[in-house]
Amino acid sequence: MLGSRSNFFKRSKEDLNRSHRQMVRYLVSNNYSLLQIGIYEKAFEYFCMNYQKYDGATIVKDLHHIPGLDINAMLHDYHYLVYKSGCNLHTKWMADLLYAKEMERTGKGLMSWIHFTGLKLTGIPFLIYSRITKGKPSDQQKRRLYSDYIILTKN
After folding, report:
1. What's the pTM value of the predicted model, to 2 decimals?
2. What is the total count of domains within the chain?
3. Hey, how many other C-beta atoms are within 10 angstroms of the C-beta on 67?
4. Which of 6, 14, 25, 112 could be cross-linked to 56 through a Cys-Cys bond (beta carbons 3.0 to 4.6 Å apart)?
5. Residue 4 domain-assigned?
6. How far apart are CA 65 and CA 28, in angstroms?
7. pLDDT digits (tens, 9 = 90+) for 99-132
8. Distance of CA 84 to the CA centre of its chain
9. Which among 50, 58, 56 is positioned nearest to 69, based on CA atoms?
10. Is residue 62 part of a domain?
11. End-to-end CA distance of the chain
């Protein structure tokens, strides 16, 4: 929720490995391809190495897919942090839309579009703040986000 914090990734390697396997099983059970699962794994591994940067879903309640982890919020945070998607109108739109589509795909239904609407309502002030504090995304970051988007939206 607003000002959220998560200690999910501040756990033992064994616990994280167990959670990683649970996440992969969850994605397989929802018909994700190996390439699509790899995108979630990339985000998971990033937060294992940078556990202090993960705060879960901000403003809204985490909707856990596996015990203690909202994998859609994790991927969304990854896109905002690593690809600076929140610092550009087009990339922010793409990352937020992907977040809503992924929530819908993993069974969160109407909540996905409620979260998307919330992201749009807070969008411009957040974008301005992000652009000032983090700078704009590079062309490479934009391409990587676009690649994730294309891979994840292919069924």
Report:
1. 0.84
2. 1
3. 9
4. 6
5. no
6. 13
7. 888 988 988 765 545 555 555 555 566 566 666 7
8. 12
9. 56
10. yes
11. 31
